[in-house]
Amino acid sequence: MGKKRERLDVIKDILQVVRDNRQIKPTRLLYASNLSPQMFKDYVDELLNKKFITLIEDKKGKKFYVIDSKGHDFLEEYKVIENFIENFGL
Amino acid sequence: MYPIFTHIKIYITRNEFISMDILNVIIENKEMLKILYGLIVVIICMIIVFKTDKIFRLSLYKGIRYLRNAFLFYGLAFFIRYIIGGLIIFGILNQSLNVTEILLFEFFLVMAGFFLLYSLIWKRIEGIGYKYPSTLVNPRIGIFYLITLGIVYLDFVWETFHFMFFSQIAIFTIATIISLRNFIKGSKQHRFLKFYFLAMFLSLVAWILNAISAYYYNWDKGIMINILLINIIIFLLFLYGVVKVTKRK
Q: Best of B48, B54, B59 to disrupt the A interface by mutation (most A CBs within 10 Å)?
């Protein structure tokens, strides 16, 4: 059995999927995230609250997630954050 | 007992007079040097807190926050003890603040030790998913506040530093063991772990020396200067780690 993903890894994975797709439908993001629907909702709500991602709607009323500048910042800093946590035993 | 650098001087020059001279200069200007020392530590703590601000805000990782709290409290402790304390000694601030200064210094110093230790063990206690609105004030940290207030109160009533010394030696013994384990587990991938262990070990040594100096040598100046030097090394080690690890490649 694989090691349980930590919170930061999950956030990184979700943001990477959103960034790589430019915009992604909620159901596709749910499948890609490998999370249960409840956990997925918790994470996505957190990312929306932190303004890492935004939910947009096209003319046909279809909803998509797109990454925000804070989300890009997080992905850029992710290695630094991970390194810091590991190096300081946090 | 002479401080480290006067020993070096003795071996280099074989001239005890010069070595004693350095020690005398330090002792004669000790209050000014203490302010300078406090200022250096406060600046290092501020740099650590500000340097880790961005990664904390992005990640909201509690371990980073507890570490930052530790250095925030160390900064406050050293500011109160050496800068406010210096101003009291020079008569710029009222002498009546002396007791408050000592009590606040002890409070922030002991709490900083608890925060540092908690930054290493919080995951085992809180769990990753456990959410508190604040890492500065929450029920678990509240326990440390209560213990710290108890320590400060007992030391104040008995007019000693027994409880502070005992608590800090206990904290840094545990922190040294945990950091040694972290170092053994991950030193190949994460190079700072060895410096972290070294910093914890030096902190333990500094607190033991502090207690020995207080109980057996009546706060011997030579030992105290060595402790201040060790403390500077510890803070510089942390600063080095923070600057190196947060540097973007």
A: B59
